[in-house]
Design brief:
2 domains; mainly alpha; 3 strands; single chain; 16 helices; three-stranded antiparallel beta sheet; about 450 residues
Length: about 450
């Protein structure tokens, strides 16, 4: 008589894999990385050929331990959470410990429960200041003066506190975006009412930068490039809906200003140029480092992120000035980011995803998405500026995603044993195992 498999351990293994995948997916990891990580943990703990399905809102994992019995099937809903690079780093370390036999199933489950239930030592007010610093960095990149930088900082802090207030009352994110866009515009209205000599478009641009959905747009294209089209489509819709909320908020703020007799003229966020090369590098460094801090990245990763972002935006600026266009400039800069992030992340012991996403934030096409949607909403033909802006945004996002993947592929070549972790080739890992160490045959 064949031995009866330990179904309880199988069930616990599936649950552990789903909990790991939930943290990775909610922190912005690509569906390919989530699938490969879950599969590698399951294989190492004895579940070979488990079926994994990753979508934007749920994770499903099944395992047939006996062909004559129904398979085990577990489903876990992925709740929307803020990007948390501290938890992502701890989970990445846990996965490595599992694959090197430093943690068994039960110890891993205990550590996983501790990770998701333990709060942060960083106070929430410091995160609000970090968002303000991020928008200040963008204002510097765009050539804003001290007053524009100060307004951007203050507006971002206010927007973050407002969104936190609304989130705690479970208001959907679309309405949070509307409220944030309105607050950002009202700061520009207040500046215009006070008679300050400012570029109102630049003020609005610097104020709404923290609301823009460039990360989601790039993540959607990254999933599309790696063959996960359902997840890609869901992320794309989320990014466009978030941007539509900003458009509604900005138009509402302009309308409120008009009621009080304060006009902002022709507001065109994202329609301006960039500042001098030195200011761009400094602004990009502040923007990327602030984003990393606001996303709870370990402090040891802040300085490398800032340096890489400054180098990347400098490369972007040089290539853009040659006349090759912004997509090629973004691709070149992203390739360098992907190339150096593998080594940099290894030195500071964080997943490459933490370094990559933070470093490309200053180059994300969120403003182009906003400008394209707002111009399309005003109407126009097939050759309207809005359509051209959306095409440019898509081109830049594809360039960033493909450039990062190519850079990581060169720096982190896939080993033959790592390819056995997944049914399809999805490129190098930005989080999770880099090679299939310690797999049990």
């Amino acid at each position: 008589m064949a031995p009866v498999p330990d179904v309880r351990d199988h069930n616990l293994t599936l649950d552990l894999c789903l909990r790991i995948g939930e943290v990775l997916l909610s922190s912005g990891a690509g569906a390919a990385d989530v699938t490969a990580t879950m599969d590698s943990v399951a294989r190492h703990l004895g579940l070979r050929h488990a079926d994994i399905d990753v979508t934007f809102t749920s994770l499903t994992m099944s395992y047939s331990y006996d062909s004559e019995l129904p398979p085990l099937i577990l489903i876990r809903q992925v709740k929307h959470r803020d990007i948390d690079y501290a938890d992502l780093t701890l989970v990445d370390h846990l996965v490595r410990d599992i694959l090197t036999d430093k943690a068994d199933l039960y110890l891993a489950r205990t550590r996983m429960a501790t990770i998701v239930t333990t709060g942060h030592s960083t106070p929430r007010w410091a995160i609000s200041l970090a968002w303000g610093s991020m928008c200040s960095g963008v204002a510097v990149m765009l050539g804003g003066d001290v007053l524009v930088v100060a307004i951007a900082f203050t507006a971002a802090v206010c927007i973050d506190r407002l969104q936190l207030f609304l989130a705690r009352r479970r208001l959907p994110s679309f309405y949070q975006q509307v409220a944030g866009g309105a607050v950002a515009t009202l700061f520009a209205v207040a500046a215009a009412a006070s008679g300050l000599d400012l570029d109102q478009s630049l003020v609005v641009t610097a104020n709404i930068i923290m609301l823009l959905a460039g990360i989601g747009f790039m993540g959607a294209l990254q999933d599309a490039l790696t063959g996960f089209y359902v997840t890609s489509g869901a992320r794309m819709i989320e990014a466009l809906l978030a941007t539509a909320g900003i458009i509604g908020g900005v138009s509402g703020g302009i309308a409120i200003g008009g009621l009080f007799g304060v006009g902002l003229g022709n507001i065109e966020p994202g329609g301006g140029g960039l500042g001098p090369a030195g200011m761009m590098a400094a602004g990009a460094a502040v923007c990327a480092a602030s984003f990393a801090f606001a996303s709870y990245a370990p402090l040891r990763a802040i300085l490398p992120v800032a340096l890489i972002a400054a180098v990347a935006i400098s490369i972007f600026n040089v290539v853009d000035q040659t006349g090759l266009g912004r997509p090629w400039a973004a691709a070149a800069a992203a390739f360098v980011v992907g190339l150096v992030s593998y080594a940099a992340s290894g030195r500071v012991r964080v997943p490459p995803l933490v370094v990559v996403v933070s470093a490309v934030v200053p180059m994300l096409p969120g403003l182009s998405i906003y400008r394209g949607l707002s111009l399309l909403a005003e109407g126009g033909g097939s050759t309207s500026p809005g359509l051209l802006s959306m095409v440019t945004a898509a081109s830049v996002a594809i360039a960033l995603a493909s450039g990062v993947i190519l850079g990581e592929y060169v720096a982190q070549p896939l080993k033959r044993e790592a390819r056995r972790l997944e049914d399809r080739l999805a490129g190098p890992r930005l989080v999770g195992p880099f090679r299939a160490r310690g797999l049990r045959n």
